[in-house]
Amino acid sequence: MRLISSGRHHATFEFGDLQVISLRDGYIDMPPTRLRDENGRALRELPAAVPLAGDNLRLSVNAFFVTDGTRSLLIDTGASNAWHEPTMGLIYDALLEAGIDRAQITDVAITHKHQDHVSGLIAPDGSEAFTELERVWVGAGDTSVFTGRLEPIRDRVVPVSEKVAINDWATAIPTPGHTPGHTVYDIRSGTGHLLAWGDTVHVPTLQFDQPNVSWELDGDQSQARAARAALLEQLTRPNHFVAGAHLDSPGIARVTPSANGYALEYLAP
């Protein structure tokens, strides 16, 4: 995995025979009281290593575009104008900056149903953001989100209820816990695996070192914690990388064992 170019809102990586482009949708600020210990109680003390923006945790929001030069896959779509304006909804600027024509996007993979991941399917003016969209891959437990604003997309939804190949290099893997349909996408190239996740980790400066810390909005905290543990262990294998929706932008890193938890090494500044 090698960084080959970057801009204000994007970073492009060479990943074997694939290109992976991180797209910055913006950020959201959340109170530290969202963090939970193993008993589901608010975390009593925040480690000094966890930075705050004022009194809040600042969570980066990233999406990822993967292409082999012929086929492509957009993983998550950001918030559009549905949530936390004006700090979010930048994915369209990021796509333009990266030289990606929205009309070339036929397949979108959604990690889960929350607004900062799925709302970008609809542009701020109410039109479909991706005019040639053919398929939206999403966990079967999260398909209920395709009503109201997202109703026009419903006929192209492909529910994921088990591990399934999207194409020759992308596989959808159900990882329920944060939501019933939370899904991770395993991107394979000739040089390794990239696991693209949504809300497996919210606070990277804390939850790698202390992976038992969960998030108030995890629908099933125990299940989310187990999913995180399994994925972190998988990521310690050789030639494995992570692309995280809430890792610090651009959100692509290596994971290694460290003390009782894990260490995160970003691949780009």
UniProtKB/TrEMBL annotation:
Pfam families: Lactamase_B. InterPro entries: MBL_superfamily_lactonases, Metallo-B-lactamas, RibonucZ/Hydroxyglut_hydro. The keyword Flavoprotein does not apply. It comes from the Bacteria. GO terms for molecular function: hydrolase activity; metal ion binding. Residues 60-246 form the Metallo-beta-lactamase domain. The keyword Hydrolase applies. Belongs to the metallo-beta-lactamase superfamily. This is MBL fold metallo-hydrolase.
